Amino acid sequence: MRPALDDGQRVWPAAELAAATAATANWLHDSGARVLATLLDNGAPFVVLDEAAAQAGVVHVPLPLFFSADQVQHALRAAGVDLLITVEPLARQWPVLPWVPATVAGHTLAVARLQSAPVALPPGTAKITFTSGSTGAPKGVCLSGAALQQVAQGLGDAMAPLGITRHLNALPFAVLLENIAGLMAPRAQGATVVTRPLAQLGLAGASGFDAAAFDTAVRALQPHSLILLPQMLRAWCVLLQRSGQHAPPDLKFVAVGGAAVGAPLVHAAQALGLPVGEGYGLSEGASVQTLNLPGHNRPGSAGRVLAHARLRVAPDGELHVAGSLFSGYLGDPTPVPDWWPTGDLGHIDADGFVHISGRKKHLLITAYGRNVSPEWVETALRSQPAVAQAVVFGDGQPALSAVLWPLNPTADDSLLQAAVDATNATLPDYARIPRWVRGGAAFDARSGLATANGRPQRDAILRAHAEALGLTGALSTQPA
């Protein structure tokens, strides 16, 4: 029987991992904890605590290490966390807490009991995931165990024909996508979960990524599957192209999600031998709803709807989902409707592939009355090798404009201009970019130009570059 977990320090047979989980579940039950928050890197302790919390009936709140101290404090208060588990170096950030050591999966962790008042949660809440927090304060999404299992089972069933028996966790477990698709789904299918501290895979913080270190790790660990963000895939493809290398031979599937990918990047990856499939999901649907799979892959689409989900297109073009829906937001008693409006615009083609065109609230209407989804143009710009990030503006303006950040920060502006020219050649005239500026700083949380998980902060980017773009009059009218 194949092992359940390989964490780099120990290869865990299924029986031993189950025993460690049961012991930890008993400890959690005896502790009297209601809501557990973990602040951990990828590794065996997270896996054991995640499954033990489910067994003990304790709500789990996984917190990403890239959250700021203020975001962590907000999440702890909002969820009514009464037990916090982290590692000793991070525990020093809160010296006033009554930390005590505890051993989980053979690792010594720091544990603190918090004096938190109980918070009303939707019935059946098993996990609370916090969104990226576009306004700085992450929003808590309450998920039931049934919804989580539905998605894990749906993904497992869809991928069963691929024969995947080794999945490498390339994203943080605290991110819902990896937690469900990269941990729960492989575990349910009996695959080996291969996990390493994220720094060993070339990841740093929310957006730092060393493609060379990542490539070396993937070739050494020989996984069958991975989940990547588009920017990670883009950087990996550039590395492979420049080095003349082909994809690692053991890979059977590379899922890509978290943001629009674009057909050019998918084609480039596939030409390098990377078996890439784009998917689509949202926290309110317990993560993945649609997925392209080998043999059923339409680059530029988000794939077909998976068995656990249902999807429809409203008259205004907004996508609605049903099936594995969340139970509610923290602090908001509003009932969740049977069909959840995603805020995403799109359509379903004749073959059942879902196409996402952008966010409903981001829709730009030019001075000539043309409706343009900025994500459409941004995806086209990011498909150019020189462009790492792009944000497009133009609501109420005669033409669109953009702020660009290069993949190589030392790249000359002529490379960015060539990227804009190449992009414009693929777009209708009303969606072209006649004016652009280079970003004054990288789009990340440190600069304040992106959320903690790398999502651009459009308002902040506009304020920082409005004068250079000639858009000072648009500061109060641009969609958020």
Automatic annotation (TrEMBL):
Top-level taxon: Bacteria
Q: Does the keyword Ligase apply?
A: yes
Record carries keyword Ligase: yes
Entry-linked InterPro entries: AMP-bd_C_sf, AMP-binding_CS, AMP-dep_synth/lig_dom, ANL_N_sf, ATP-dep_AMP-bd_enzyme
Q: SUPFAM superfamilies under this entry?
A: Acetyl-CoA synthetase-like
- Which of UniProt's keywords are assigned here? Ligase
Q: Which Pfam families match?
A: AMP-binding (PF00501), AMP-binding_C_3 (PF23562)
The transmembrane residues are none
Q: Where is the AMP-dependent synthetase/ligase domain?
A: 2-323
PANTHER family xrefs: LONG-CHAIN-FATTY-ACID--COA LIGASE
Q: What is this protein called?
A: AMP-binding protein
Organism, by scientific name, is: Pelomonas dachongensis
